[in-house]
Write a structure and sequence with these properties.
Length: about 300
């Protein structure tokens, strides 16, 4: 009887010490209701209620420390950074700035718009090439707008000045297009420009192929940098595949044939026929020709066997 009562109240969650005290006071033959009333009077509570009554102690973990609690993984924490799959970007700064300034003003804001567009896509390697003399105060024949943007991009290690100097009052400028194509070719990246670089294509045959395949043209629409969705034409890759090192091929979705089993096009039908998966998709005319050729071929073989000695 004692053991059964102990098991009963232990299942309710009360401690063994409290149960033993109550049974000693009331006796072993006390009713279960009386034992329960005495446990409540003593203030004993089941362990489940005690755990609910005690507030859970939250552990404060310092920012950046290694905690055992699960947390969300941000981009790059699991080692698979999306920037690793994106191509480096080399921007022709003069071409972009003059295009944004309507070929009248060297608009540095256009360069900033192009850089921001590629940053939002996740590109980390972005370089802009601009001649060094654009750092000088603007003149009437070459106006510059928002020149302070060049200094900000230079501090961010995004903008690179191509060298230039003055010799006897004349400015000697290095060919910045050669810098652009050379860096993009070595980095296996993308050139952002509306220039075709025909002189450099004739200079180096390897550069010719690279410029034809990796030149990304663009347009400015209401201060919005917009490259085309099909950089290499209608039948070429999409913009996302063009800018990524590992292009993703879209799944080919077949449209079911509207004629169904009544279709007579056979293998010339451009639609999907689920009933022809394991059959040779021949047209009706081709099937008839195949059937007529089969018996004629068998008859010829029999004639040959008869004529043979």
């Amino acid at each position: 009887v004692h053991q059964s009562k102990m098991d009963f109240f232990c299942k309710l969650g009360y401690g063994k010490q409290d149960i033993c005290k109550v049974l000693e006071n009331l006796g072993q033959e006390a009713l279960e209701d009386d034992v329960l009333k005495e446990l409540i009077r003593m203030g004993s509570k089941p362990q489940a209620l005690e755990n609910q009554a005690q507030p859970s102690q939250l552990k404060l973990v310092a920012r950046g420390s290694c905690g055992t609690t699960p947390r969300l993984k941000w981009l790059g924490e699991d080692g698979s950074d999306s920037s690793d799959s994106l191509r480096p970007i080399v921007i022709d700064g003069s071409n972009v700035a003059m295009s944004h300034g309507n070929k009248e003003v060297f608009s540095c804001w256009g360069i900033q718009l192009a850089v921001d567009w590629f940053r939002e896509r996740g590109h980390t390697y972005i370089k802009v090439f601009v001649p060094l003399w654009r750092k000088e105060p603007p003149r009437q024949d070459s106006p510059i707008a928002d020149q302070h943007i060049l200094g900000e991009l230079e501090k961010q290690s995004v903008l690179i000045y191509t060298p230039s100097r003055k010799v006897k009052g004349k400015r000697v400028v290095c060919y910045d297009d050669r810098y652009i194509v050379k860096v993009a070719y070595e980095k296996d990246g993308v050139i952002v420009s509306n220039d075709h670089y025909r002189d450099l294509q004739n200079e180096n045959p390897e550069w010719k192929w690279f410029i034809e395949q990796r030149l990304l043209m663009y347009s400015f629409v209401s201060n919005r940098f917009m490259p085309p969705d099909d950089p290499l034409g209608r039948h070429g890759p999409t913009l996302s595949n063009f800018l990524s090192k590992k292009p993703v091929l879209p799944e080919r979705k077949w449209q079911p044939c509207p004629y169904g089993k009544k279709c007579t096009y056979g293998n010339k039908c451009k639609f999907y026929h689920p009933e022809r998966q394991h059959q040779a998709q021949l047209s009706v005319a081709d099937e008839l020709r195949a059937k007529t050729k089969a018996p004629s071929a068998l008859g010829k073989e029999e004639e040959r066997c008869r004529c043979s000695p």
